Amino acid sequence: MLTTVAVAFGTLMALEPVMALVHRFLFHGPLWCSHKSHHEHPAARRIVRNDLLWVWPLMSSAVLIAVGGPVLTGIGIGTSTYVAAYILAHDGVAHGRFRVPAMVRRNALLQRVAHTHRLHHRGGRAGVGAPPFGIYSAALEHRWRLSDSYSPPTKICSPA
Fold it and tell me: How far is the C-alpha of 5 from the C-alpha of 22, rounded, in Å?
C-alpha cells in the first residue's frame, strides 16, 4: 500500500513538467488540429475535439489500475489524479467550462493558475497560444522564460 501511494504521488508530481512538454511539443505541434478547438472555444460548455485528447491517458490509467501490482496501480492512480486536477484547474477554474464551488475558485493556487493560463490564451510574449504551457508550473515557466524560442503552429487544419 505504501509503495502504491509513493508511486502515485511521484507520478502526480512528475506529470506537470511532462504535460507542459506534451502541451508545447505535441498539442502545439502534430496534435494542433485537435487542440486548436480549445483555443477557438476555450469556454465551450460542450465537448470539443481537444477534450478527446484526455481519453488516452485516462484509458491507460484504467488499464494500469486494473492490471494491478503496487507500481502499476500507483502510476494509474497518479495519472488519473493529475488529469482530474488539470481538468479542475484548467477547464473548471481557468475557463469556467463547468461550475466550480466559489470556495474552490477562491483558492490562491487555482487563482494563480487561472491568471497565468490566460497569458497562454491572450498571447503571452509571442502571440496566441504562446508560453506558458504548463498549468500548475506556468508562473515559473513564465518568470524563467523557459519557452522564449516558441513559434506558433502553422499547420492548416480541415474544418471540424
Answer: 25
